[in-house]
Amino acid sequence: MKRTRILFLPLLLAAVMAISCAVNPSEDSDISYDHMMEAWLRINYPDVKPYGKYGAYILQMHKGDGPAIADSSYIRVHYTKYFLDGTIVETNVRQLAEQMGTYTPSSNYDGNTWRMTQGYLPDALEEVFRTMHGGGYTAIALPKSASDHLYSMYDAFTSTEEVNNYLYEFDIDTVINDIISYQDKEMRTWFRTHYDSEATIAEHQYFKKLEEHTADTDTIPEGTSISVRYIGRLMNGQVFDTNIEDTAKFYRIWSKDKTYSGMDITYYKYDESKFKSDNSVVAGFGNAILKMNKGEKAVTLFNSELGYGAKGSSPAIPEYSPLIFWLYIETKNQ
């Protein structure tokens, strides 16, 4: 990934002076914020005009020389989001987060994958991205009236603070035309490399027992309550969750608010609907558990459709993420 360019910090004094004179509290909120953005632009980017139909301002752009971004594409993106005074609101650029002192091992810094379909991103951003290619970079000023913040599913455009004008930098790392095929290729390569195997237990899911128990006494009867120890990873190796306390401490994701005990699972191998209704686990996790006996260890890898899908699970699991789980089944009374 190219290093994100920090364009806005040298412009702070002029920006703040302009903003302080721009807002009339009696005006409609969107109009007031638009005036604020216009004042900031007059001082810092006087030649920049609104782009296209939806009103984003392109402050800098390198279109990139990779695949073009089409309506059906998915894009993997690193971004940084700023207030107009240059304060960074959030970023998924690890180096920048470390410099700011906001880096946390439980957050995602491997890029976010966004779908280029109407309604998934603010219209103004879609309009700009459609002109770009893989490997591209852009810096954008996005007025409040053009941002659709409250309706976006993505963290970069959703905030618990008051909706505002924002500045963004985007690096387009990868353009993906078929997200499922892309994940399948990545998973096949990863599993073959790490476990010399391509064994599957379901479509889009790999599985391998690391310690096997085949005795009749090790099988799990229907309706039995078991406990499961697990370590969850992304394909870049990041551990996003575990119920093994020493592992949580080693990977710096330990929390005083979490109880590090086995996950209770009610085992229904032959009744899928009962298993789903009694256990709150993603499909890929459940598929793997149902292939195991007591005392066994296994590893499984499955695509995002069997995991957290298009939304991911913030802050650690980004959208469209295949997941890896190391699993160990123990009886509750063991």
Notes on the protein architecture:
The protein starts with 11 loop residues before the first helix and ends with a strand. Helix 1 packs antiparallel against helix 2. The protein has 8 helices and 13 strands. It has 334 residues and is α+β, with helices and mostly antiparallel strands. The protein folds into 2 domains: 9-176, Chitinase A, domain 3 (Roll), CATH 3.10.50; 179-331, Chitinase A, domain 3 (Roll), CATH 3.10.50. Helices cover 23% and strands 25% of the residues. The chain is elongated, with a radius of gyration of 24 Å.
In brief, what are we looking at here?
With 334 residues, this protein is an alpha+beta fold.
Task: Give the number of helices.
Answer: 8
CATH top level assignment of the largest domain: Alpha Beta
Q: Helix/strand/pairing class, anyone?
A: alpha+beta
Poorly predicted tracts of residues? 12-18
Tell me the strand percentage band. Answer: 25-35%
Q: Key terms for this structure?
A:
alpha+beta; seven-stranded antiparallel sheet; Chitinase A, domain 3; 2 domains; 334 residues; 8 helices
What does the secondary structure layout of this molecule look like, with pairings?
Layout: H1 12-20, H2 29-44, E1 57-62, E2 74-82, E3 88-91, H3 94-100, E4 112-115, H4 123-129, E5 137-142, E6 166-176, H5 179-195, E7 200-202, E8 205-211, E9 224-233, E10 239-242, H6 245-250, E11 263-267, H7 272-278, H8 283-289, E12 297-302, E13 323-331
Helix pairs in contact: 1-2
